Amino acid sequence: MRYWLIMPAAGSGRRFGAASPKQYAPLEGRTVIEWALHPFLSDPRCAGVVVALAPEDREWAGIAARLSLAAHARPGGAAPPPLTAVAGGEHRSLSVRQALQALAGRCAAADWVLVHDAARPCLDGADLDRLLGALTSHALGGLLATPAADTLKRSGSGSTVDVDTHRPVAETVDRTALWRALTPQMFRYGKLCTALDAAHAAQRFPTDEAQALEWQGEQPLLIAGAASNLKITAAEDLILAAAILRSREAGKAQDTQMRIGSGFDVHAFGPGDFVMLGGVRIPHSRGVIAHSDGDVLLHALCDALLGAAGLGDIGQHFKDTDPRWRGADSRRFVVEVLAMLREQGLEVANADLTLLAEAPRLGAHREAMRQGIAQLLGIAPACVNIKATTTERLGFLGRSEGIAAQAVVLLAESPAWRPRS
After folding, report:
1. Residue 185: Cβ-neighbour burial (10 angstroms; 0-12, 13-18, 19+)
2. Any idea which fold 3-149+175-254 has?
3. Looking at residues 64-92, what average pLDDT do you find?
């Protein structure tokens, strides 16, 4: 099967109490919305993603760029589904309808659409599989939900609840048949469009998609989901979400084998006025002699990645006799090597690179190199280390006849997305 994902993310999150909306709050090295999107970006059944944003949103562009560089492993190294952004509305249901409209012409009436909250970062893949498996042949659809576990009370002083105000209890509510609605919620495209249009025409704004279908006399199915699929509402919810994600990753790590690789590269100095290091052009009194751009840091990195994967060395894959690589940007080599790793279900955990040279000095360029390499590898800058040393004026490096680099990398034998920190 295939499905389309809609993520309403136009809310301001007033109850969250922070300068930025809750979907952009940092969580285990990424933002909440990045965690919320991940199960779908790495799922081969997802045909495309539409995110509905507030008109004044200034943060999504940077996140979208980062997501396009991150390694969301799909079988066979397939690219993640395309991301589309649309303007949302004043209410959640209006945002969802805007996103549905963006799928017009791509979605048939019977196609499946999943709607998932941008503030739910802990959806487990098993829950997603359970939802899809239970509803694939259903005519309407349904939603993940969990039975109400706590004793429920109805306030006796009105329907609006202010958590900072004491209120008397009117009654205890029978929880036997009560469930907490979660997301994703999954419905046929045509039925969901029709239900939302009818609600909006009557000036009614459902709080979730299932309610819109209920108003049409439909009965969505409840699919049991995990209580860990929590929604970030208050700042303290981030603590629990972080604990869930860390626990999940720790469990994966127990079943994951690690691979270590090392690489080394050297180039002689020659005519020129700059050198390329880590993808950054650095002014220098000399250039390097090389078939490509001579970026020793990235060449050493490629050798380390290939070595850890048992795939030989850079010279086997990018021959210096091949005209395709004459003057080539070495970042292309890294991208090609990462594609080879994905074919083997491998991902980069961290990289440690060392430049060996009397000059140039890296101080002013180190952070740009670190950020650029992290983007290439799809990991956090904190997982990339760059350092430099000299040979105390010994040997060809000490005589400033050339420049060298070495790299050490750690790969994980798992397609799972790792926390960024």
Report:
1. buried
2. Spore Coat Polysaccharide Biosynthesis Protein SpsA; Chain A (3.90.550)
3. 79
